Predict the structure.
Amino acid sequence: MSDPHFFTAQTTLTLRLIAEAAGVPLPEGADPDRTVTGAAPLDRAGPRDLAYMDNARYGDTLAATRAGICLVSPRFAARVPTETVALVLRDPYRAYAALLGRLHPDALRPGSQFGARGIAPGAHVHPEAHLEAGVTVDPGAVVGPGAEIGSGTVIGPNAVIGPFCRIGRDCAIGASASLSHTLMGNRVIVHPGARIGQDGFGFAMGASHLKVPQIGRVIVQDDVEIGANTTIDRGASRDTVIGEGTKIDNLVQIAHNVVIGRHCVIVSGVGISGSTTLEDYVVLGGQVGVVGHLTIGRGSQIAGSSNVNRDVPPGSRWGGTPAKPVRAWFRELTTLARLAERSGSAESRDEAER
């Protein structure tokens, strides 16, 4: 069986280009035309590879690396081997990510799974849909009447774009994803299996539960990324909104009428109940649960596995169940640990006396 490499470098990078991209001067005496043809971890990198290091855990690995060029934070620069060119900067990981995107642009977003250009055989595009030049539609995909799709966008196999949806330019809609009642900006990435724009969970409770029609939309602004098998319900009577630059992991549930601000980060397993607002730059750790009709203030961070049942002030760091400011949460955990230890010691003494 062959052993394919799914992402091969699309270009080479010179030391001069890397230094310019990182915003640092060339090291004295270094050859500005020295090239790298790939990127690799410290322990696997060779003389033609780019690597990075900013974590004390990997100090010994850095000292033994064979990487050609290494992006490194100042406190570890002295450990770079003499055969490796060190570019010292404050945030090596961010610079490495940008350079990795230059080497492997095909890894930045899902592409055609069929290697297609244009509308592939077996795709179903309604004659009343409007696709700009340069749209790719893979086999099995369905594009409904009145849908509009901008140039450079790729619709993966078996994806469904519902009637009158709007998708901007340079987007990627992954395999078997579905969009309905959705307006989407430019450069949005939707990974396989995501569901956007389906009914919110709305019922008038009683002896029999009466379904409440969900007549809102989902608005996804520019540069949003939505993970695999994530669900975003359309609004009940107003719109569900995902703000510009927000990044959503796999397996996230976002309910109807939720408004998420710009540049938020929502990690896998999060559930956000209806009509909750996340202001800009909020971070929710994995498996956080948020009850409905709350506001989580700008720049707040919620620790993984926490449950939020009240408003969170801007700039806060909360954790626990129910979530509370981290200092209070840590005091609570410490107190419980001490009580458990005392209880265990008392039980041991009682057994010894018996």
About this structure: The chain is about 15% helix and 25% strand. Residues 326-353 form the longest helix (28 residues).
